[in-house]
Design goal:
heterodimer; A: about 325 residues; alpha+beta; Rossmann fold; OB fold (Dihydrolipoamide Acetyltransferase, E2P); 2 domains; 5-stranded antiparallel β-sheet; 9 helices; B: about 280 residues; mainly alpha; 14 helices; about 0% strand; globular; binds adenosine-5'-triphosphate; binds magnesium ion
Chain lengths: ~325, ~280
Amino acid sequence: MIRLEGITKTYGTYAALQGIDLSVRDGEFLALLGPSGSGKTTLLRIIAGLAFPDSGRVLFNGEDVTQLKVAQRKVGFVFQHYALFKHMTIADNVGFGLSVRSRRERPSAAAIRARAHELLELVQLAGLADRYPAQLSGGQRQRVALARALAVEPQMLLLDEPFGALDAKVRKTLRRWLRDLHRQMGLTSIFVTHDQEEALELADRIVVMDKGLIEQVGTAEQVYMEPASAFVSDFVGETNHLPGGFHVRPHDIEIVEGEGQPVRVENVFRKGGNWRIEGRHQALGQVIEFDLDAQRTPPLVGALVQVRPQRLKAFTGNPEDFHEHA
Amino acid sequence: MKPVSSGGVRAALILATLGFLALFLFLPLVVVFTEALAKGIEAYALALVEPDALSAIRLTLTVAAIAVPVNLVFGVVAAWAITKFEFPGKSLLITLIDLPFSVSPVVAGLIYVLVFGAQGWLGPWLTEHDIQIVFAVPGIVLATVFVTFPFVARELIPLMLEQGSADEEAALSLGASGLQTFLRVTLPNVRWGLLYGVLLCNARAMGEFGAVSVVSGHLRGLTNTMPLHVEILYNEYNFVAAFAVASLLAALALLTLVLKSLVEARFHPHERRTGS
Ligand SMILES: Nc1ncnc2c1ncn2[C@@H]1O[C@H](COP(=O)(O)OP(=O)(O)OP(=O)(O)O)[C@@H](O)[C@H]1O
Ligand SMILES: [Mg+2]
């Protein structure tokens, strides 16, 4: 189990992390989700031992590892841009962690090579052992980086934006593949992302971060349905901001026959299995977005429809909530 | 742009460049070799095996053999410190590394005379202990080291900055020690840039005139390097011998150019970041 207690980190005068408390269970697949600059990478690097907190403690299975360097923490780290050794073959990259062990613990060259091949098979790249990183696609490099991290049998896997540099199609395939791999191996894994869809699809639990603080920790369902703050509601999924600090998701607004709130339709377009309708709320004077099942006939632009919000969530004390949702 | 006019411009530019190169580079080279061989191959060979010439060649090789490894180590250490660590005085260090480029070599030589010469700061102490630096080989080595120390560091710093430290962090996270990381990741990542820097450093170490001239004392057969020997022969109107020794330096320059282009040919297609 990983425990973080009161972690802070300041760069110059900028507080990148302002007191992080978090527990990660064994075998869990955890996502660190947040906008750019929220401190995700910094936190991941502190867990790995690539950076050190100004205050607070990092505990692995109850043992204080705050001062331990990365080499002693037995973590597998996958870098955003893979950081493969470009002068080594793929097999040598994967075997690197074993080949730098002290003479007593180091397997024979043949054993290292065999282990590298085993791992390359696991990541489905068995045929590419003798190529160089430059000769691989982005998705293949990513999997090599993963195999290399796994070769040293780490007690946890830390991934910084593992799919960040890939195109949408490869991302999706790789995402599913990584989830299966995690189910198969059961290795405690933490990955950083600023893509909420990725977090919702992969993670057992999601840690939503903003400005160096944790806003909420919960399952995808909790974070989406019971956002703990206006920020979470806004960042995870889409939200209409209504006056008084009320948030309502587009799919929670229904068109009704008869008595409702009048909305003048301004734009209609298809969004997956739904129609997305943008219309001006007549009483509030602001534009709201809502969804309609694509099976039904959408209203015409300029038409006046009656709507009723099904689920409203109130967040008080944040003046930002009164702004119109763009 | 119209292709016709741009074609004309291009031809003119290329011609101008070639003309310039022919005048300032090719012609002198030809002159060096024709003058050296003006009295036949025998006179040429004799000028090279004459004891003072041999001694100058030996001294030049010795000086380079000391200065280049010293600056190789210094350059790697300085580049490593500057690019991978944060410390106070870093920008000052970067400026200091460039100093030999901005100071006239003659001034550099004079500084050594002022510090180590008989009348210099350390002069009395050195005399007392019977150590001679100025007007002796140690002074020549020191001056050469000073003049050539930016080459390796200057070549490595931008390269290492561009590569960042992700590769090193990856190696460390896989359990490598600092030394293993350096030998197996950092060094291979910069090997072509390093070789390039060493070539330039070596060429300058063998060719340096100004700083060495000040500290050498021009003792024939003792403290004359090849460039100094060339000057002495030339001043004695011994043109064949002067150009014969100069032709060795020119050959060295040509060899450096060839090696440099070989290194660059390897450097470019392959050494781009494969990370992103
Ligand atoms: N080495 C550093 N020196 C100075 N400031 C830093 C350093 N590393 C991070 N920061 C600052 O700390 C803040 C958090 O950075 P961090 O990289 O953790 O963000 P992130 O959540 O990973 O963002 P992104 O999604 O863009 O990667 C940023 O404002 C960043 O500018
Ligand atoms: Mg980041």
